[in-house]
Amino acid sequence: MTRTKKGVKLIHLLVAQRFGKNRHLHIQYQPACYMSSKSTASPAACPDIQPLSVLEEMKMPFSRALIGNFFQDQPRLGNQFLEDSILQSYLRRHLPPVVLKEASQDLGRFGQRIVDELDTLGRECELSPPHLEHYDAWGRRVDRIITCPAWKKMKEVSAEEGLVAAAYERKFSSWSRLIQIVKLYLYTPSSGYFSCPLAMTDGAAKVIESLGRPDALQDAFRNLTSRDPKRFWTSGQWMTERKGGSDVAYGTETVARAQADGTYKLYGYKWFTSATDSDMTLTLGRVEDAQGQIIPGTKGLSLFYLEVRNAKGQLNGIEVQRLKDKLGTKQVPTAELLLDGVKALRISPEGRGVASISNMLTITRIHNTVAAASAMRRVINLAREYASKRFVFGSLIKDHPLHMQTMARMEVSIFFIMFFIVC
């Protein structure tokens, strides 16, 4: 092949790489005898003229697209209850047979719902974080926190599945809390972090129950523990203020002023309020006496119940200053709030706020532990599934001893962590 013919062929290859999607592109490269302007030779006189179909000639990778032709199969999520042999083994050992049978049926069904529906919803929550609308089109202050449809659907699912209610219905007697925890363990990694408001909702219900379900809180308790999506409430836990930290007594500056009708008005600034779109919350404040004085320290703190919006749907003396720009859990609306005359009900003896809210702190910490363990379990499950699909160095990575040693150590870790939670 002459140098001219090689050059022409190279040009044709470059053109084909640029316009390779045209399946009908046929090009001929010509020998020197035909390419010469002085030549009178016809194509037939040049025996080495060959038709070139670009798509047939070019067999090299990346000829059609820069992304190549390989796509890694993604790991598939299976039924997280039926595939968890350790969890099932524990339940078989500790639950009475009648309870085990009924609970296992419900957990198996829920495990499949996670695969079929909830995991996708959780992903949508992650991709569509909440945002804050301060004003409406006419300049009125509305402080509207807008969440995605998937987040709202998670609230409905939480009610339907009894993710809070199960612990208070006591259908399974003393085993009810354990079964609720198992259900949360399955749900949390696919929840889009709706497990966060559920933790505080559970904690608020526990506080109200520990206070004897006073008449003023009966409706709130029924809403917090309802299986009806139209009635179900979630709760916040507004404790952290600007001084922040674990020293609640030092950090709380919110003032509570008594009203003639027996309620209080709260004035303060809450620095970090998770799940700010909740229906109600429990919070701490310092009661002023008749002279406008407050008691410093822990003894000056009381516990208050408030509803976020009034009967007209307006914020209850609350201004949403901004949503937090967090490193993680971006699905959860977390805000800074100005409390400017919030109507509230004191539900603890005066000065017993920290003691009264302690049940809420205990419950939310249990939820946090479950969330951490369930995330580990899910990561291991996905890694194990991926190991059966990823091919490197001549074999699947599940066949590489070093990789499987790492997986085995992870399995042992989650084994002990799970038993730490449930035992």
UniProtKB/TrEMBL annotation:
Keywords (A to Z) from UniProt? FAD, Flavoprotein, Oxidoreductase
Q: Which Gene3D superfamilies match?
A: 2.40.110.20, 6.10.250.600, Butyryl-CoA Dehydrogenase, subunit A, domain 3
Q: List, alphabetically, the Pfam families matched.
A: Acyl-CoA_dh_1, Acyl-CoA_dh_M, AidB_N
- Asked if the keyword Nucleotide-binding belongs to this entry, the reply reads no
What protein family does this chain belong to?
Belongs to the acyl-CoA dehydrogenase family.
Q: Which residues form the Acyl-CoA oxidase/dehydrogenase middle domain?
A: 237-342
Domain annotation Acyl-CoA dehydrogenase/oxidase C-terminal: ranges: 351-414
Cofactor(s) needed: FAD
Q: Which GO terms describe its molecular function?
A: acyl-CoA dehydrogenase activity
Top-level taxon: Eukaryota
Protein name per the record: Acyl-CoA dehydrogenase family member 11
Q: Tell me where in this chain the Adaptive response protein AidB N-terminal domain is found.
A: 79-227
